[in-house]
Each structure stands twice: as structure tokens, then as C-alpha cells.
Amino acid sequence: MDKLILNEGSLGVVNVGLEAFTADLETQGVAVAQVAWKPPLDVDKKAVDIINKHYATLIEKANTEALKIINAGKPVLIGMGLAIDTIPGMHKDLILHAGPPITWDKMCGPMRGAVIGALIYERRASTPEEAEVLAASDEIKFEPCHEHGAVGPMAGIISASMPVFIIKNETYGNLSYATQNEGLGKVLRYGAYSPEVITRLRWMDDVLYPVMSRTIKHLGQIDLQSLIAQALHMGDEVHNRNRAGTSLLIRQLAPALLKTMENVEDTTAVLDFINGNDHFFLNLSMPACKAVLDAARNIPNSSIAVVMARNGTEFGVQLSGTGNKWFTGEALVPDALYFPGYSKADANPDIGDSAITETGGLGGFAIAAAPAIVQFVGGNASDALSYTESMYEICFSESVKYQIPALDFRGTPLGIDVVKVIDNNLVPIIDTGVAHKNPGVGQVGAGVVKAPVEPFIKAYEALAKTFV
Q1: Residue 126: DSSP 8-state
Q2: Bridge partners of residue 97, in order along the sequence
Q3: pLDDT digits over 163-220, tens only?
Q4: Where are the domains of the chain?
Q5: Does this model's pTM top 0.85?
Q6: How many whole angstroms separate alpha carbon 267 and alpha carbon 23?
Q7: pLDDT beneath 70, residues of the chain
Q8: Measured between alpha carbons, how far is 243 from 462 in angstroms, rounded to an integer?
Q9: What's the CATH superfamily of 45-71+296-465?
Q10: Read out DSSP for 189-201?
Q11: What's the CATH number for 73-288?
């Protein structure tokens, strides 16, 4: 009988379980591979049985339909307008905010700061103290941007007089909206409301808005999908890095800016402002994703997430197959690189609608396309690749429009599947800016954060109930 010879080649160890075992073996010079496996998340057993019963039939069919709609979407910038004239349901006493619903008394510091700034900007208050009293009264109403077809980075505040971009999903006809990006540092979206912040906002009204509006009208529309696809090939992930996207946008705008110029000073000021604000394109990539994902709402049985959003207190998720219901959990503090003089102790929990980019297969899901971003959010280039590769495990499919050069032009992970999140015990990764926890301070860093598991467990269990 032949003997089994085990020593013909070098042997290694595959470890499934505690990583400490891997570390111990490595210190002894043993070749070891750690299997990245975790047991499924602990959810209601009845829900698991229901989902398992229907996944291969009804759920997969619904998800295929949802991904077909998402991949077919084509976001284009078609114009601008004032929020009160443009956003459905907007009125002078309404302030829209990032994330799931929240009341003034539960708002975090940066969101309160942004509301204060918005009320001063709207000339509804002349001091921060007056603004706080007004915000706490019944006169001012608060609702999520997402419930009005809009998105806002960080605090996400949109008030009646603010100019907004209008984005159309050319394939399905639905619209989305976002304000103009102020830049980094002490800005309204990070909760700052000093005089310089208000002055900048009013310049954006008086100069930036009319110049941009004329320019877009002259162009007719701008193909955002094409710009995003190109930006991914040039080192952006269009959430925390938008240098290429903003540069490509300037190339499209510049000839029309000159052709529609009413005076040299304003046109020059607008070009200087956009050129000096690498994040200007963020307020276009976000509503571009929003417009595409909204078209895939309300598909019965679908387990695909169409919204991830944070208000600085809670993290919220919405699924295609569960209507407009929010599933929430506590927002987490990002692991970040902090500006000099600040630390994690100063950071507010994760905040903003900008996770709509990750929901749309961009941002942290496409971070492998933007290895340079690790200089801003921490880590190294190999981490960027690992982040993206892990996100394929929780997505139903891949993008047919957005590709990652470093992965041989593979489509970005697309269609966050709450079932895969639960089964793989793996939550979405988001790269994000960090706001100071106190109102009025502004940005203090940038980093990476994992979504909390609680919203996904709630969404999973709610989806299961739709089959009962």
C-alpha cells in the first residue's frame, strides 16, 4: 500500500477563528494564512428561515431587477434653482438635514451649528442665541433631505433661499438636488456659522449661483456619469477625493463660462473658487448617486439598500423592498487622521448624506481607484485595495459603468444586499470627513468608518416580515 508522504513540500497553517493564533504562529516562523470568516450576525431565527426560504427565488429576482435599474440609470446636471422653488415640499419654515429624521433636541453639535448658521443666513435671526431659540420653537420644521429627493454632505442643511443643483436620471426621469459645495474647513456643513461662513454663503448666492446657472443653461446638460467614470480612472473615488472630478467639470464649464460672461470679475472669481475647492464635485456626485438609486425604490422583495445616511446621532438605512421606512442605529465615531491640535475625543459621530456615494458603488467601495486618498484618511495603498475587495462580498452585483483600473477595470461593488451583510457579518465601509462635536468649530479630520450593524439587522428582519 502506498504511503502518504507529508514532508515532500513545506507545510503551512490555515487558521479559522481567533487572529491571536495566527500571530503566535507567525512569531514562530510558521507560514500561516488567516481566513477572514465570521459567523453570521445574530438575528431573529424566524426571519432567517423566511429569508432563506425566499432568497433564491423571490429576493434574487427582485434584486436582479433593482440592479438592472441602477446600472441603467444616467445622471445628468440639467440646471439650478432656489430650494424653495425647486425641491418638492420645500417652504420657508422648513430646514432639510442629513440622515434619518431627528428633532432639534436630539441634534448633534455640528448639525445644530449648521441650523444656527442657516437661520442667520436666511435673516431669520441676527445672533446665534436668537437662532437657537427659533430652532427650538414650533415655527421651524425639520425633515431629512432624502425625503425630498435631496442630499447634503455632513450636516446636510438646506434652507429655503439656498441655490441647488438639479440632477435628472435621464433613463427614468426622476430628479435629485444638492446645494453648492462651500469648500473645506470652517463651513456651514461642518457646523460653523461665523461671519466669514455667512459671507461666503451670500457670495455663493449673489455671484456663484447666477454664473453657474447661466453656464449650465447654455450647455443644456452635463453628463455626470461620464465625469464620474473618468474621475475613477484618474484617482478619485468621488466622496473624499474629488480633485479629478472637479478638474473635469472645470474643463466642461470653462468655454461656456466665457461665452455667457457678463463681467470679468465675477467669472474670474467663480473659476478661482471652483479651482481652489477640490470638493466642489462632491455636491454633484452625491445627487448623481441619489437620482440613480431612487429609481430602484419600491421593488417588492428586494433586499438592496437605496439609502445609507447619518445625522450625527443615528445611522439610517432604507431598502428598496421596504418602502420609505428608516432602519436606524447609533452613529459611530470614525477612525481618522486629525488636524493638528485635535483628536478622536473632539470628533462627532459619523454624519452626512454623502454615504449615498458608497450606496451607489463609489466612495469607500471604490477606494481602490484612489490610493492617494490614504494620505488624507490614514492607512496605506494596500488597505484601499482590501477595502474595495471586501465590499464585493456584501454586494449583489457590480457596476457596468464605473470601473477600477487597479482591479483590471472590474466594476465597482454595487447593490448593498442586506442579506449578504447579515450572512457575512460584514458591514459597509465609508470614507468620510470628521466634524468637531461642538457647534461652530468645523472640520477636524478625515478617516474611515464602518457602518453600525443595528440598522441592517432591523432592515433584514423587516424585510422578512413582508413575506408573512
Answers
A1: S
A2: 144
A3: 999 999 999 999 999 999 999 888 999 999 999 999 999 999 999 999 999 999 999 9
A4: 1-37, 45-71+296-465, 73-288
A5: yes
A6: 59
A7: 1-12, 15-26, 28, 32-38, 376-378
A8: 40
A9: v583 domain like (3.90.1700.10)
A10: GGT--SHHHHHHH
A11: 3.90.1710.10
